[in-house]
Amino acid sequence: MKTTSNQLFDRWILTYQKHEYGFHRDGIIDESQFDKERHRILFVMAEPNSRYGNYDHFIGMDLRELFGKELHSKMLTRNLALWTRALLDGVRKHTYLTADEVRSELRRIAVMNLKKFSGTSEADYAAIGLHAWHDRAFIREQVDIISPSLILTCGEKIHKLFGAVMHDDRFWSTETNWKWKGVSVKNIQHPATRGKHTLPAFHLICEIARELK
């Protein structure tokens, strides 16, 4: 019998018994919609974000539900929605999306964090690395369950860390794109990017979209 994401998370949480309240489930936002898409796109990020590390309002909540219903006004989710539309529909126009449009686009993708507990607005990559290495077997299993056809790592450090985790080799490192079980793993900007970096990040997504068949 195939393991589901929730069954995986039930086992995963047990390795963090003292911090179970803060564990954020993530992955495929809407499984029925995800299964309909030509390309199964997985965005890999570092950790859930919070103000001062508290994450008081959303602590421990299922990020699949938050991305699909509530977190539609943040720069991160708005960029993710625009990028999703470019990748899956070939729409290469950078424009404003309504809250409903953002929610609709996010339901087409999967988003996972290497660290399941929230950090602050400034990532602590040492802590993220420790969590990811501790959880590396679970992370690999989660990727297998999602079964993506394209993996996009959000930032150079996450690109390298994800590679080390997937290859079970803490010294594994690359600055180039690579493949995992035949699936392309490409490095992109973090979707929370803003200002002068916004358009270059979007243009890179458009280049990747052109490569998709």
What can be said about this structure in brief?
The chain is of the alpha/beta class and 213 residues long. 42% of the residues lie in helices and 12% in strands.
Question: What are the SSEs and their pairings?
Answer:
Layout: H1 5-13, E1 27-28, H2 31-34, E2 41-45, H3 63-69, H4 75-89, H5 99-106, E3 110-113, H6 125-134, H7 136-146, E4 150-154, H8 156-167, E5 178-180, E6 183-188, H9 198-211
Parallel strand pairs: 2-3, 2-4, 4-6
Antiparallel strand pairs: 1-3, 5-6
Helix pairs in contact: 4-5, 4-9, 6-8
What would you note in describing this structure?
With 213 residues, the protein is α/β, with parallel strands linked by helices. It has helices at 5-13, 31-34, 63-69, 75-89, 99-106, 125-134, 136-146, 156-167, 198-211; strands spanning 27-28, 41-45, 110-113, 150-154, 178-180, 183-188. Strand 5 and strand 6 (183-188) form a beta hairpin. The radius of gyration is 16 Å and the shape is globular. The chain starts with a helix and ends with a helix. The mean pLDDT is 89.
Summarize this structure as a short list of keywords or feature phrases.
213 residues; alpha/beta; Uracil-DNA Glycosylase, subunit E; 6-stranded mixed sheet; 6 strands
